[in-house]
């Protein structure tokens, strides 16, 4: 009885161990994710729903923010400048969640605008996103060697979007749009609930960022602090009246007209004149950015994480290799969408995909292992970084390398898929010698009914099993095959049966 209990425990030990590891991973990830994630939806609260910072705290933060004098942004009284930026404008569009993909998109666009000496216009239509990504974008704008114009379009630029808008050298809004609600929240991915954060260790750095990169552009310090502490929201007219934006423009054409001729002082120390003739080019995000941004959707990444973890758990417990492969793939994609380093994920996917394709070639798993491997290789190639610090190549070379990588990935993926298909088809094909069925041979040995012996068929010796007694020298006919034996009977009986069947 004791041995049976130990055997049962031993049987379920891998399942319990796997469940424990996955639970620990989920809890650790949830804790990190809860601290890093900012709200992606606008929330309205009343006085009794959350603690409100004291008047002293508010006045203290406003006082600190007012200490930042206007140094950068539009200089209406400037009469001199060091260089001219133009005559071209580049436009990018930040939509949906502010994430690492949008951060890379902005950085690449700033580099492109600097190379072409063009004004960069950042159109914002976002409910917010990750604080870390937004802060990196704010810093990138401050380091830019060309003017960056923030322009809220269509609906809103809330939360992290407001942080980005306040850091631009020229802030503009389209009529009917809103900004505000910068107070961060702690999001719990396990329950889907969130709580407003009022911890000074989190609030103060956000206020400091807004003051450092907003008040120095001439934005109203009191409004900046209220964005964070009280979730204030402003429409275009009110934002202009409050002094947190510079312009209101109905469309791109009007915006270009309004910024033309403006003198802007950049945080890098230069004063430049914007000279645009109304021409612009829209920079679309590349495939890598699009995939990363799609994976960063909170609902999609949550679904991928849940399905991937469950598939991995049950597949490990049951020893199902195709399920393990598919679950691991979905789990990596979910982690990428939740902020995991995409460069590391690309390396994991490429190595894992190559291993799975190799396994499929030798142990076919109904195509699931090979198909998952090919998908991992494709996503790994897509997520590979083409640009970045230290990657000193020209724009045309980078594009050539990018398209070549995609072409090679698609070609190798298609070739691998074809090879896997052929191998699986060959492995599944029944191993039979049906070409010998019906062939007439001669018995070399006396073979009793149910016994075995040798026969000669089409010039070759075969081991045979007789279903009727066969004497040496008798003519036999092959009727079937069982393993290494040909099943035979006397040819005369076969002929008689065929004649009877014909009658």
UniProtKB/TrEMBL annotation:
Keyword Transmembrane helix listed: yes
Biological process annotations from GO: proteolysis
Membrane topology: Multi-pass membrane protein
Major localization listed first in the record, in broad terms: membrane
A cellular-component GO term for this protein: membrane
GO molecular function: peptidase activity
CDD domains in the cross-refs: Clp_protease_NfeD_1
Membrane-crossing segments per the record: 298-316, 346-363, 368-386, 406-424
Keyword set includes Transmembrane helix: yes
InterPro entries registered for this protein in UniProt: ClpP/crotonase-like_dom_sf, Membrane_assoc_protease, NA-bd_OB-fold, NfeD-like_C, NfeD1b_N, NfeD_membrane
Ranges for domain NfeD-like C-terminal: 436-490
Keywords tagged on the record: Hydrolase, Membrane, Protease, Transmembrane, Transmembrane helix
Protein name: Serine protease
